[in-house]
Amino acid sequence: MSGTWSAPGRVNIIGEHVDYAEGLCLPFAIAERTVVQVSRRDDERLHLSSDFEQGTFDGELSEIGPGTPKGWAGYVAGVLWALRAAGHRVGGIDLHVTASVPLGAGLSSSAALECATAIAVDELFELHLPRTELAAACVRAENEVVGAATGGMDQAVSLLATAGHALLIDTRSGDTRQVPFAPAEAGLAVLVIDTKVRHALADGQYGKRRAAVEEAVARIGSLRDADLAAVATLPPQIRPRARHVVTEIARVQEAVALLEAGRLAEIGPLLDASHASLAGDFEVSSPELDLAVETARVAGALGARMVGGGFGGSAIALTPLDRVDAVSHAVRAAFAASGLAEPDVRIAEPSAGAARDQ
After folding, report:
1. N or C: which end of the chain has fewer CB within 10 A?
2. Residue 221 backbone class (left: φ over 0; alpha: ψ -120 to 50; beta: rest)
3. d(C-alpha 313, C-alpha 294), whole Å
């Protein structure tokens, strides 16, 4: 048994760094997808290869565990490990990655790889699991095998997205809701500006931010229920991190209300406020991200912010269609003037979730 499966990356409209704090997120799936060709084996060996990443992995399922294998193969092998740990009968596979969401761009290439693997394994081994359970296995793979302390937003949207919508994710209850999001119909585009500055979520900075949030929760309870008065009682070293989470959750709620009222163009100031909070209170921006955001605004974007884990990767800019070329040119010119590599600027289309291709 064999086939080809794919899963999309994502852009998070708003709700950054709150998915591990019982918060609300509002991502959408993008057209860029990671594609895997997978064959079921009759033994318990894994052979993993990629057109986009160096190295291969060839080993037994019994070898998989925290920290093994290293690199990109851990995202694939970790999914099988997590499914087996949950009691599902999963054997060996041959897997080759033939296309990829841009790596390190903050568009969740890792979750796309995990989710493409998960739906392939689910079908090949006839597990018939709910997509929410597959998402949980992907999160466990990333947390425990790869060692990146991410939340579940990326995997949920990669598996559950529908075209023309964003996915409101309540990370406390696990509930999701499709929220209309069709920028082109409103005369707008979501530009993704890839700064080409690469980051690794397992390098410790993401984990430090998450640890600060968890300490705040231990002191004042769930930040989902907290207000700024409670945040003000926290020690100075963690207070700004908690303030970002509390204010970001409120921004998600306001954005959803605007989108459901058909007022998409009015979310621009919320994007601006989100970036200011991520850069100031959460300190996960970078000079390149700040340059992209500020330049896009000056050139005519209605709002802009960094997306993803931070420290590099991409920003988004909500832009009128008639200003797309001007904003794109201005950002590229600003990077050139600063001696930076040319950024990649593209329109992100709200797209469908993971599926079998062949």
Report:
1. C
2. left
3. 16
How far apart CA 2 and CA 145 sit, in angstroms, is 25
202 has pLDDT over 90: no
Beta partners for 166? 179
Residue in this structure with the two tokens 């908690």, named with its chain if needed: 242
Would you tell me how many other CB atoms lie within 10 Å of the CB of residue 88? Answer: 16
Q: What is the per-residue pLDDT across 281-312, written as a single tens digit (0 to 9) for each?
A: 999 999 999 999 999 999 999 999 999 888 88
Which tens digit of pLDDT belongs to each residue from 160-187? 999 999 999 999 999 999 999 999 999 9
Name residue 263's amino acid.
R
Note the residue count of the chain. 358
Contact 181, 166 (CB under 8 A): yes
SS3 of residue 343 by DSSP: coil
What is the DSSP track for 246-276?
HHHHHHHHHHHHHHHTT-GGGGHHHHHHHHH
Whole-number Cα distances in Å, 144 to 17, 55, 140 = 19, 21, 6
Superfamily of domain 181-348: GHMP kinase, C-terminal domain (3.30.70.890)
11 closest CA partner among 254, 274, 321, 245 = 274
Q: Given this model, what pLDDT does residue 337 score?
A: 98
Across the beta sheet with 188-194, the strand order is: 303-306, 314-320, 188-194, 344-348
- Within 13 Å, how many C-alpha atoms sit on residue 155's CB side? 27
Peptide bond connecting 69 to the previous residue in cis, omega within 30 degrees of 0: yes
Residues 223-253 have pLDDT tens digits of 999 999 999 999 999 999 999 999 999 999 9
Residue ranges per structural domain of the chain: 2-178, 181-348
Phi and psi torsions of 302, nearest 5°: -80, -20
Is 154 part of the annotated catalytic residue set? Answer: yes
Architecture of domain 2-178: 2-Layer Sandwich (3.30)
How far apart (Å, rounded) are the C-alpha atoms in residues 195 and 340? 9
Q: Look at the alpha carbons of 220, 226, 227, 231 in this order and tell me if their dihedral is positive or negative.
A: positive
Catalytic residue among 19, 154, 194, 272: 154
